[in-house]
Amino acid sequence: MRYKHLKLVMDIAMTILFVLMFKKNVLGLSFHEIGGVAVCALFIVHTVMNRAWVVAVSRNLFSKKTPAKVRIRYAVDVLLLLDVFAILFTGLGISKKVFKIIAFLPGWAIPIHMLLGGIALVLVGIHVGLHWGWIKGTAFAGLKGKKRTVMKAFGCVLLAAFLCGGAYSFIRSDFKNWMTRPFASGSQVERRIPPDAAPGQSGARQGGRPQQPITAGNVAKVFLTFLSMMILISTVTASAERLVGAGRTNNVPARKQTY
Fold first, then answer.
1. Threshold 0.90, pTM exceeds
2. Which are the contacts of 109, defined by CB distance < 8 A and separation ≥ 6?
């Protein structure tokens, strides 16, 4: 397997695990804890595999020749890496199953862990959006003629479905609640969040027991819900980047622009 293909497979696996972390009771608390550590580990490996770009940008971050787009990508990646470490730290600290022997944080850390997860969803969405051109190029690489046209049409329909699903999911999910819970009063947090609650689970039972049986339907629902939210953020980011790029192109008509 080529190196770039290995990276692509790893990124897909990381994305699948990542979106399944937002409803821990769908696959059980043990899976949530092990999967969370795996996602954090995969992201760190992802960063190491792209270390050449990280080192190159770090050396020239404040150079006038470094495009603003590259600096924004770098800032998002740094924030995401810090957030991942914070998620790992708080996740191990509030563990109640697999890593409970090393758990060291009290209950007030639960809403903070939830907030960090929400921030990660936003940052991953922005990260993907800033690499939208590469993703699109990879997806349609090798396709020509009618096949390319058909796949582009299918991709547009699929994207539209995800955007509608993402907007609906943001409205219907607990996203707003677990992004604001750390800033509520202590009594409110204690009443609203059981000891083992996780992002998106405002009424989970104690002890990590699932409220619903583990079924393919429930897993698919969670996967599509949070994947659509991430894709919506990515699309908004990519669209904003394109609009900014178009504006710069119009201001400099005599200079050839490259994506």
1. no
2. 90, 93, 94
